[in-house]
C-alpha cells in the first residue's frame, strides 16, 4: 500500500498548495530545519517564489534512545527541555550536559557547513514559514520558534506534512498559524508515512540552499 507521501519533495509540493496566500511576497521567507526539513522547504520556496534559508536546531536525544527527544537547542543559547521525559526517565544533569555539549558541537559544524560566512537572515517585519519533515514531541520545532521569535519576526507559520493532533494544537497557541496535512493518532514514527525517507545529506542541503537562493534572486 502506497504511503501518503512518496518522498519529502512530494510532501513539500502538497504543503505548498496550502500556503499560496504567501506567494510572491517580499515580506515572506521559508526556513527549513536541517536536514530533513530542507527538501520540503525548498519545494515551498520554489512554488511561492520566496527566499529559502535554514533554521539550525539540534534535538537532545535520550542516551540510548536518540530518537526520543528530551529537549532541543538552537543558536543564541536557546534551549527547550521536555521535563516530562527527563523526569520519567530520571535523566541526570550530567547526562543532559554531556548530550548538550555534543549537540552544540554539531550545531556549530552545521552552521559553518550550510551558511558559511552568510549571516542569519534579518527576520524583522517578515513572516517566517518554518518547515520540518514531521513533528513527534515538538521539542525541536519549539526551539526553532524561540530562535525566530528572538529574531523579532513579525509572524510565524509552522508548516509540516505530519504531526500528532495534540502537538499541532499546542503549537497553534504559540504561533500565528499551523499547516499540517496529516495528524494520525497514534504517531509511532514519521518515516512510516513516507515511501522514501532516506537521510538528507549535508551536500543536498547545501545544493538546495544554493538553488533556492538563485531562484529567489532571479524572482
Describe the structure.
It is a single chain. The protein is an alpha/beta fold. It has one domain (8-218): Rossmann fold (3-Layer(aba) Sandwich), CATH 3.40.50. It contains seven helices and eight strands. The strands form two sheets. It has a five-stranded parallel beta sheet with strand order 2-1-6-7-8, sandwiched between helices. Strands 3-4-5 form a three-stranded antiparallel beta sheet. Helix 2 runs parallel beside helix 7 (202-218) and helix 4 crosses helix 7 (202-218). The longest helix has 23 residues, at 93-115. It is globular. The model has no long low-confidence stretch (mean pLDDT 92).
Produce a short descriptive summary:
The protein is 40% helix and 21% strand.
Label this structure with key terms.
single chain; 40% helix; 3-stranded antiparallel sheet; 5-stranded parallel sheet; 219 residues; Rossmann fold; 7 helices; alpha/beta
Strand fraction: 15-25%
**What structural class should be given to the helix and strand makeup?**
alpha/beta
- Estimated helix fraction: 25-40%
For the secondary structure, the number of strands is: 8
Q: Can you tell me the CATH class?
A: Alpha Beta
Return the average pLDDT rounded to an integer.
Answer: 92
Dominant shape: globular
Q: What is the string of helix and strand elements?
A: HEHEEEEHHEHEHEH
Secondary-structure map:
Blueprint: H1 8-16, E1 28-32, H2 37-48, E2 52-54, E3 58-62, E4 65-74, E5 78-81, H3 83-88, H4 93-115, E6 127-131, H5 139-150, E7 155-162, H6 165-172, E8 177-182, H7 202-218
Parallel strand pairs: 1-2, 1-6, 6-7, 7-8
Antiparallel strand pairs: 3-4, 4-5
Helix pairs in contact: 1-2, 2-7, 4-7
Amino acid at each position: 500500500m502506497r504511503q501518503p507521501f512518496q518522498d519529502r519533495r512530494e510532501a513539500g509540493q502538497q504543503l505548498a498548495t496550502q500556503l499560496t496566500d504567501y506567494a510572491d511576497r517580499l515580506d515572506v521567507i521559508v526556513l527549513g530545519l536541517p536536514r530533513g526539513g530542507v527538501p520540503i522547504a525548498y519545494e515551498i520556496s520554489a512554488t511561492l517564489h520566496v527566499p529559502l534559508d535554514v533554521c539550525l536546531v539540534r534535538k537532545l536525544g535520550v542516551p540510548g534512545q536518540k530518537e526520543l527527544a528530551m529537549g532541543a537547542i538552537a543558536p543564541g543559547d536557546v534551549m527547550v527541555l521536555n521535563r516530562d521525559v527527563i523526569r520519567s526517565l530520571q535523566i541526570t544533569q550530567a547526562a543532559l550536559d554531556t548530550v548538550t555539549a555534543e549537540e552544540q558541537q554539531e550545531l556549530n559544524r552545521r552552521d559553518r557547513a550550510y551558511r558559511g560566512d552568510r549571516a542569519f537572515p534579518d527576520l524583522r517585519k517578515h513572516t517566517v514559514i518554518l518547515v520540518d519533515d514531521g513533528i513527534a514531541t515538538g521539542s525541536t520545532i519549539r526551539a526553532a520558534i524561540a530562535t525566530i521569535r528572538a529574531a523579532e519576526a513579525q509572524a510565524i507559520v509552522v508548516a509540516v506534512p505530519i504531526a500528532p493532533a495534540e502537538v499541532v494544537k499546542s503549537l497553534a497557541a504559540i504561533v500565528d498559524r499551523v499547516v499540517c496535512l496529516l495528524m494520525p493518532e497514534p504517531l509511532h514514527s514519521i518515516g512510516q508515512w513516507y515511501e522514501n525517507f532516506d537521510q538528507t545529506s549535508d551536500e543536498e542541503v547545501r545544493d538546495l540552499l544554493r538553488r533556492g537562493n538563485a531562484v529567489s534572486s532571479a524572482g
